[in-house]
Amino acid sequence: MKQLTYIFFGMSLLLSSTLCAQAPVDYPLDTINGKIYYRYVVERGIGLYRISKNFGVSQEEILKANPDIQTNGLRFDEVIWIPAKALAATEPTIPSAQIAASPAQVEPKPIVATEKKIRTPRIFPKRKEKIQDQAIIDTANNSVIVDTLLPPLRLAIMLPLQADAIKRERNIERFYDFYCGALIAINEIQTTGQHIEAFVYDVGKTAQEVERLLNDSLFPKVDAIIGPVYSSQVKSAAQYALSDSTWLLVPFISTIEDITTNPYILQFNPSKTTEADTLARYLAQYGDSINCVLVESKEGEVIPASITAIHQALVQYNIPTDTVSIRELLNDSIENAFRPDMENIVIFNTEKYGNLHAIMPHLLTASQTYPLTLFSQYSWQNEKIVLPQLYTTVFTTDNETPETYTSVFEEYFGHTIASTQPRYDLLGYDLTMHLLQLLQNDSLNQDTTEVHNGVQSDIEYHRLEAGGYENQMIHIIRK
Predict the structure, then answer these.
(1) Residue 14 pLDDT more than 50?
(2) Whose CB among 59, 93, 264, 380 lies 3.0–4.6 Å from 376's, allowing a Cys bridge?
(3) What is the pLDDT of residues 50-82, one digit of tens each?
(4) Alpha-carbon span 389 to 174, nearest angstrom
(5) What gap in Å lies between CA 335 and CA 194, rounded to an integer?
(6) CB distance 463 to 447 below 8 Å
(7) 27-92 carries CATH number 3.10.350.10
(8) Which fold has domain 273-393?
(9) Degrees (nearest 5) of the Cα angle 71, 72, 77?
């Protein structure tokens, strides 16, 4: 397990050279022909573009200092020289940052990075924040100094970033994107005068890694933890949160053990029961003008918990339903299931669109006679479905990413993110921004938090009786 510790100062954003770096790191210096160069040993899997971004110099300057690269290319473990431009202008401020060893290891491996000053405008309009004055007694001069900065907030971010991997697993990229969005949110909050310290941990995939981290005496006292992402890890983190009275924001899973009894959990993804209840309440408002058709899959196939919850919610709200089997639909025996005088909401016992390929032509034929709307999973949005659709989601679909956010992301990280749904960097931005605002305003001891309108996600946490909070901002989308 690898700890990536970042300390944020004022309006500066400190980034790891391993993950999202832009700032040059502290490498040995050599003077050649009167010019100062960093002596850099080429790391495995890194290219000329990333080196230029890490050191803040152009690729052309690196090639000019190392002409052999044009002939032989970059070679692993080769020493090259990088122009140390910043040293010629001014001596940089060096905040502390380190990649520390796991508890099982002995020696920490330090990495020192320079600060990056922000020159871009705020992403969103500045909020009116109440800056709390703090009285600091100067014992030497027997006087009182007023500090207008807010008390510092401390975050621990636990994600499986695979920072040491030559090539990350494909599904890990979303956590990397989430992390980058979180960094932008942290910097955004700091422009209000709020000092933040963030400790980032690459925790892998096992519960044991999280347990060792939390049991380590060096683990800092923090106001909140963001992550981890796997169920077994969340269980360990939740136990720590309860014992240490630390807020735990769980970004990715919808089933959290003991959330009804642990008051320190913030669950972003609503439970299947909550989603089903939201859908049923939405359909109930249409009364007798709709007919829900539950399509049973082949015998012996396990029905997903989300579909079972929808079936139960429809019964609870007395919504008219009919049941038909896939075999009946394939045999064109549909006249007893669909009704021509009302909207038929077709709900399949599956979360996989691939299971519907054989039946879709029959539904298209039936739609010429009967008004059909397919209840879809959010994951089906990239499928070419010509039927009208209805689905639930915690992500909005009509908000555009502000241009300033895009420009800030490109400046810090040197690349853009393809337009996908959902955007995990925007998820990291929205959740981190909201959490920090809740901590600033000390508003996490209410039954319901105010609605947070994010770039991609609207969030409203509701307390579950004596337990934690669940986000219940679920959108019903028709298309």
Answers:
(1) no
(2) 380
(3) 788 788 888 888 888 988 887 778 887 788 988
(4) 27
(5) 64
(6) yes
(7) yes
(8) Rossmann fold (3.40.50)
(9) 145
